[in-house]
């Protein structure tokens, strides 16, 4: 099946290359911000709700500030500044049409290879290896989300707390549609990323990487979903790890990919989900111009 998808999408991209060259690519104009738990959306949260967190964990915050030689207010400002830098990085430079044509040409040459699947097993650690699960289970879902995001606020990763109904929909659709491609703007043009689900993980690699290395392609980003609290608390915790060997993405890039995933598979409009369906069911009719236009509406 993937072989057919590969060949047909390759032909489709070649046909559309000249059309894409005549149109300027879009520019991301807004940064991503964390959503509130229960709103049916989930994505990276580089900062946290400081007021609520401080009220319950004031002593812990003071200890962290003291260990860094800061006052509590200085620590809060430091976190805000770091978050602002990450979000600012999510605004790529505008790309010229000529550059887009060249990059799209590379994407065309780097379309999905005729391989069965990427060799990513669900080998992620369980949640109790990362946190004291028995302590989290005593908290409310809202507090768990704050603790989870705050605990990773200064780490080089992305996190989220996903409502169970949203994750269940994502997981169900991942079994129907385990692969997809997402275009992401770069300074040099646009780069297509290939994503693949593996149980409760999602791996992202560049389409070029997958074409050139096949089953040896590296995951640039791995999103791991921890379902231990799904039934008792109604949430699934997510952690996105960026590969450092070598590092090809920053946290803003990871945010973009995670946000695109949620939009195409769960929280976006019906047209976005139809693109995912068509990618699998009618690859010969898959329109990359519509895909790029759909990504433009994300922001």
Automatic annotation (TrEMBL):
Compartmental location = Mitochondrion
> Where does it mainly reside?
mitochondrion
- UniProt KW Transport keyword: no
Task: Report the transmembrane regions from the record.
Answer: none
What does the UniProt keyword field contain?
Mitochondrion, Transit peptide
Q: Name one GO cellular component term.
A: mitochondrion
Write down the InterPro entries for this protein, in alphabetical order.
ATP11
Instruction: Describe the family membership recorded for this protein in Swiss-Prot or TrEMBL.
Output: Belongs to the ATP11 family.
Which protein are we looking at? ATP synthase mitochondrial F1 complex assembly factor 1
* UniProt source species: Mucor plumbeus
Taxonomy of origin reads:
Eukaryota, Fungi, Fungi incertae sedis, Mucoromycota, Mucoromycotina
């Amino acid at each position: 099946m993937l072989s057919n998808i590969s060949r047909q999408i390759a032909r489709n991209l070649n046909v559309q290359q000249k059309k894409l060259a005549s149109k300027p690519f879009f520019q991301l104009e807004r940064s991503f911000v964390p959503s509130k738990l229960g709103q049916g959306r989930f994505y990276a949260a580089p900062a946290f709700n400081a007021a609520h967190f401080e009220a319950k964990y004031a002593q812990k915050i003071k200890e962290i500030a003291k260990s860094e030689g800061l006052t509590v207010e200085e620590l809060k400002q430091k976190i805000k500044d770091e978050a602002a830098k990450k979000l600012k990085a999510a605004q790529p430079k505008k790309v010229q049409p000529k550059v887009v044509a060249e990059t799209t040409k590379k994407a065309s040459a780097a379309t999905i290879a005729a391989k069965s699947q990427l060799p990513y097993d669900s080998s992620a650690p369980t949640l109790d290896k990362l946190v004291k699960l028995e302590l989290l289970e005593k908290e409310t879902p809202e507090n768990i989300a704050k603790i989870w995001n705050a605990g990773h606020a200064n780490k080089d990763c992305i996190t989220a707390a996903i409502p169970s109904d949203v994750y269940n929909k994502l997981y169900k659709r991942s079994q129907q549609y385990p692969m997809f491609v997402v275009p992401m703007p770069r300074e040099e043009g646009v780069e297509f990323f290939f994503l693949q689900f593996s149980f409760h993980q999602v791996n992202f690699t560049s389409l070029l990487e997958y074409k050139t290395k096949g089953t040896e392609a590296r995951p640039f980003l791995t999103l791991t979903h921890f379902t231990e609290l799904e039934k008792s608390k109604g949430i699934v915790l997510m952690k996105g790890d960026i590969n450092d060997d070598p590092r090809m993405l920053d946290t803003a890039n990871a945010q973009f990919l995670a946000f695109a995933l949620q939009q195409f598979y769960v929280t976006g409009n019906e047209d976005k989900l139809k693109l995912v369906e068509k990618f699998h069911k009618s690859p010969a009719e898959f329109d990359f111009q519509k895909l790029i236009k759909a990504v433009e509406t994300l922001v």
